């Protein structure tokens, strides 16, 4: 039987990159971690085996499936919404369906996930979104839709922090800068341009972002809510 002191965490988008690092970190702190994935089944299964958690296939753009799956989890102590997509390019040439899918995954899903999880979340629960430094600074062309989606999370955490504050539930957004993942490889062709915008000129390691999420999930962060915590090597400075 699982001890009642074991915290239950749900990470949306945990199969790769920053999400996988968050799954590993929260698991290493003794939490029982369930995570979702959409396309990367093999990686999800192997991570679930490694961490002793559960992997659930769930496309964050499917609102009804998302609400049903989170509802089925029951009481979650920690919700992390990491699943996100990046679409960059000339807005005049972008497929509007692709832009709407980005808004659905990056904005709608965090909102519905947070509200659904909050229905059963115990007092003192934690909700963390993964945003981006591009909410605050867009140093290159082509980032309007992506930046807008991440900026939406800043407003969302302020509102939800008020809505759930009487239950001591905190709601925050972590805003990474360039972080070494499939989405933004440290050795990618844009690296020198990205580093030129930063005070500390390197990609972050996924474990550095996961550490900030773990701190927000800890008792120590009980008074941090409605906040955007940026971890971007000074890109937005
Ligand atoms: P990756 O592309 O490397 O990984 C994305 C993760 O999200 C995967 O686990 C993927 O799962 C999951 N995911 C994507 N779409 C969906 C979906 N529709 N439903 C469920 N899961 C989904 O990205 P990163 O790790 O780099 O990024 C993670 C988060 O951090 C994103 O929100 C991103 O915007 C943000 N970010 C990243 C930065 C970077 O430089 N890397 C910088 C700033 C912010 P699967 O493969 O199974 O579909």
Question: What is the topological layout?
Answer:
Layout: E1 8-12, H1 17-28, E2 32-37, H2 41-51, E3 54-57, H3 63-73, E4 78-81, H4 96-120, E5 126-130, H5 144-164, E6 170-176, H6 191-196, H7 206-216, E7 228-231
Parallel strand pairs: 1-2, 1-4, 2-3, 4-5, 5-6, 6-7
Q: Could you report the average pLDDT, rounded to the nearest whole number?
A: 97
C-alpha termini separation: 48 Å
Specify the biggest β-sheet.
Answer: 7 strands, parallel
Biggest sheet, spatial arrangement of strands: 3-2-1-4-5-6-7
Helical fraction equals 40-55%
Which percent range describes the beta-strand content? 5-15%
Give me a quick take on this structure.
This protein has 237 residues and is of the alpha/beta class.
Could you explain the architecture of this structure?
- The chain has a single domain (8-231), classed as Rossmann fold, CATH 3.40.50.
- The model has no long low-confidence stretch (mean pLDDT 97).
- Helix 1 (17-28) packs across helix 7 (206-216).
- The chain is globular.
- Helices cover 41% and strands 15% of the residues.
- The longest helix is centred in the middle third of the chain and has 25 residues, at 96-120.
- By secondary structure, the chain is of the alpha/beta class.
- The chain has a 7-stranded parallel β-sheet, sandwiched between helices.
- It has helices at 17-28, 41-51, 63-73, 96-120, 144-164, 191-196, 206-216; strands at residues 8-12, 32-37, 54-57, 78-81, 126-130, 170-176, 228-231.
- The structure holds NADPH dihydro-nicotinamide-adenine-dinucleotide phosphate.
